């Protein structure tokens, strides 16, 4: 059993995508990030960066005590190694998958996240910041579009954790002010993954939480602008 600490954000969706594809038993523990659940001591005990997702594997392959994992990329890698799924066995293909997982973790996710922040959540519209991150998101879409030319999936012929890492960050493309029609290879890949039964199930698991009210002004104060002192105080 996998205990998944989750909220329906792109990083949260990565993990439900894997769990649904792999057919692993899991239970969701909602972490309402606009209510400050990520600062609770019991959550920080195994997710010290006060971010979700995080997992507890109650039946690790070594037969020992439960294993905790935080950071979505690390969780994907851990689950792939646990199950032997969605990660190639040969060293060269495995290297390629991990390159693109790190590309998402270090590039697409953070830049699209800043795009969301300045375009949607920032209390004042700073045009330079909006333009900066919309353009950088566009550049990254272009990188992925070129990578997908002549390939069904990011790492090649097989669906992998590289695809699971990136797909949820393309879902909000309209909010990111991106036109998928301008990226034909990316658009084809996106539609292919969107139609997978496991993708449909994964997003359905998040619907009860996604229907919560929009982030309030108090929620924004919790989500944004934390310092070491304020985050520690909340814990």
From TrEMBL:
UniProtKB keywords: Transferase
Span of domain GST C-terminal: 90-214
Domain GST N-terminal: 1-87
Gene3D superfamilies to which the protein is assigned, alphabetical: 1.20.1050.10, Glutaredoxin (3.40.30.10)
Coiled-coil residue windows: none
InterPro entries on file: Glutathione-S-Trfase_C-like, Glutathione-S-Trfase_C_sf, Glutathione_S-Trfase, Glutathione_S-Trfase_N, GST_C, Thioredoxin-like_sf
Signal sequence region: none
Gene Ontology MF term list: transferase activity
Family that this chain belongs to: Belongs to the GST superfamily.
Record-given protein name: Glutathione transferase
